[in-house]
Design goal:
This protein has 460 residues and is of the alpha/beta class. 28% of the residues lie in helices and 17% in strands. The longest helix is centred in the middle third of the chain and has 25 residues. It comes from Posidoniimonas corsicana.
């Protein structure tokens, strides 16, 4: 017991010292987001997957083992940018499709806007936006970013950078005709941004990679590293109409080659941080936007479920935080944490940041990450009539004990009626926050849609 008290006192003193330094030296912030990367798709969870760069980030940082996101990507991205549950402003149940005139509400303050007020002069979004493409008001450059390179829609072609037959690749507001594999181009740009930073003010770099989201397309050298055999057919080759560009022998092989490209991109970003001499005071946060999709090669084993569901496999994702100057690495935390915590945590790290005008649903994780505070007693809303706590999950009226994870098989509502009723009340409180304005179902409005030339964003 004395040893535990001593260790707690040391950690508390360390955290106090860190808080004093945070105000004096705000960190560079690099937020890396993978797209549809499953629980079982990283090496530190699955030895059969080769992700050495993500693994070294995990070894040097803190693994957040119970980190939750939304079951699909636009809502998770909205929560990252606002620190708020996206059902508050109409974005919880689905992504924003190409034919939809909708976006992240302009009543919401975004993370880069708040960081600008905290002294972050350069704020770049490099990758997949997916929070509105139909009007300039939804564009990253209208939401606090000073630089944008990447695509506005999801599920673009990795080689042509097209969606719905039109180029969706931008530098700022202007179409970019850069040639190359999308994941590699995004890593190139992130490395350039870090290398160009010479100012005294810290920077914010948001890199939402499009990998390994479908379409399943990988570069030949990445496929070769995953055992591609050119003498065997590519998957889908029996379909005469199939586009076989970038396909391997199997879906899983192709997916793993795409993860390989993602991992190499992450490694290049980490190397650029090291080479800049700023690694000690650079906060790197890595996560996936939702669980993997087995039909596209992803895996969430041993968790139940997949992208689109609120089973663990759909909403519990690989997540790592590294900040050498302030947080002791090489640890794993199983405390309940979530995508809505990213904004308040980064604002606290920035020091002197303004208070957002809208109520924040997330919490500042720095005391937990620094070891000066125990895990918060909290519940998280997952959408789709589900809520989770440290010990329990209520989903569609059924109660699951999370200490028995990842099974989520036995409904214990009858054995624990008091717990079930308490969580029903929690769920009702969360769902009472739902906005009257909600994005329409994904396919609605698709018929007859024609994408604008080069996905031009002309309307305000």
């Amino acid at each position: 017991m004395a040893g535990l008290i001593w260790r707690g006192a040391v950690l508390a003193a360390f955290a106090t010292a860190c808080c004093d330094q945070v105000v004096a030296a705000p960190p560079n912030i690099v937020l890396l987001v993978a797209d549809d990367l499953g629980w079982n798709d990283v090496g530190y969870h699955n030895a059969r997957v080769n992700t050495p760069h993500i693994d070294r980030l995990a070894a040097a940082g803190v693994e957040l083992d119970r980190f939750y996101v939304c079951p699909v990507c636009s809502p998770t991205r909205a929560g990252l940018m606002t620190g708020r549950y996206p059902h508050r402003f109409g974005l919880h149940n689905d992504v924003i499709p190409p034919w939809r005139d909708f976006g992240l509400s302009t009543d919401e303050q975004c993370l880069p806007e708040l960081l600008a007020e905290a002294g972050y002069q350069r704020r770049a979004c490099v990758g997949k936006w997916h929070l509105g493409h139909s009007r300039r008001r939804y564009h990253p450059l209208s939401r606090g970013f000073t630089e944008f390179y990447g695509h506005l829609n999801g599920a673009i072609d990795y080689f042509t950078h097209e969606r719905e037959g039109e180029l969706d690749w931008y530098r700022g507001f202007q179409p970019s005709r850069d040639q190359g594999y999308a994941t590699t181009l995004l890593a190139d740009e992130a490395v350039r941004f870090i290398g160009d930073h010479r100012g005294e003010a810290p920077f914010f770099l948001y890199v939402p990679f499009n990998a390994p989201h479908s379409p399943l397309q990988a570069e030949q050298q990445a496929l070769a590293r995953q055992g591609f055999d050119p003498d065997r057919p590519r998957f889908g080759s029996k379909n005469a109409a199939a586009d076989l560009r970038g396909r391997g022998n199997t879906k899983r092989q192709t997916f793993r080659a795409m993860v390989d490209a993602l991992d190499r991109g992450v490694g290049r970003v980490l190397d650029a941080i090291d080479q800049s001499g700023q690694a000690e005071n650079t906060l790197v946060w890595f996560l996936s936007d939702n669980g993997g999709t087995p039909q596209h090669g992803g895996s969430n084993k041993p968790l139940r479920g997949a992208k689109g569901s609120v089973w663990e496999g759909g909403v519990r994702v690989p997540t790592i935080v590294r900040w050498p100057a302030r947080i002791t690495g090489g640890r794993k935390l199983d405390a309940l944490t979530a995508y809505i915590d990213v904004l308040p945590t980064l604002l606290a790290a920035a020091g002197g940041a303004p208070t957002p005008r809208n109520e924040i649903d997330g919490v500042n994780l720095l005391p937990l990450l620094g070891g000066s505070a125990p895990p918060a007693d909290r519940s998280l809303y997952l959408g789709h009539h589900a809520v989770v706590t440290q010990d329990w999950k209520l989903k569609d009226g059924k109660l699951f004990e999370m200490s028995a994870r990842p099974a989520e098989r036995a409904d214990l509502a009858d054995q624990h009626p008091t717990v079930a009723e308490a969580l029903r009340r929690e769920l009702a409180a969360f769902e009472s926050l739902t906005s009257d304005v909600q994005s329409l179902p994904y396919g609605e409005g698709r018929e007859g849609f024609v994408a604008p030339r080069d996905w031009a964003v002309e309307r305000e």
